[in-house]
Design goal:
By secondary structure, the protein is α+β, with helices and mostly antiparallel strands. It has one domain (10-181): Thrombin, subunit H (Beta Barrel), CATH 2.40.10.220. The chain has three helices and six strands; from the N terminus they run βααβββββα. The chain has helices at 39-64, 66-94, 162-182, and strands at 10-20, 98-102, 106-111, 120-128, 131-146, 150-158. It has a six-stranded antiparallel beta barrel. A hairpin with a 3-residue loop joins strand 5 (131-146) and strand 6. Helix 1 (39-64) runs antiparallel to helix 2. The chain is globular. The chain starts with 9 loop residues before the first strand and ends in a 7-residue tail after the last helix. 22% of the residues are buried.
Length: 189
Amino acid sequence: MDERRGYFRLTVSSNVELNVLARRPEANADASSHFTASPILHTMAELKRLDLDGSQLQQQIKDSDRALGDYLSILTRKIDTLAQFCLNSQIAERNTSQSIELSEGGIQFTHPTPLAEQQWLALMLSFDTPLMAIALHAQVIRCEPDRGNGCQITAEFTYMNAAERQQISQHIMRAQMASARQKPQQPTP
């Protein structure tokens, strides 16, 4: 088995919702459209996308008018706080988090039933530390039995735009920093 990787992988906790797609999705299709039963996750993903889209503009405003820029930053933090509260409530209700391996290029997770290799998926990933939700298209690369847990599914993300790739990358960085902060400091001799 070829285990060469083009991206750094990290083990994180996530709620994984998936919809098996009957055919290959369109390149510019929105994966969140497959999850109409999860409006808060859709809203959180959209807020994150808008935040990424507006961050450069907000910085330009702050450069020209510091008071207005600071006020916009406060409004952004308020919206983020409300969105995180709603997402946290949604995740707590479901309580179906699992340990996954995540990279910018794909994911490995547990699923109760086998999925065919090359099968197209719509995935909704919601993370509790740090809070984030994102919907992506993926294609199953490998499906292997996992003793007592169903199957280990390895899937490659497809049709990711730059904002989605940046969201995953930033989430991996934040999770690494949170993990490093949680580890006790080793005393130096």
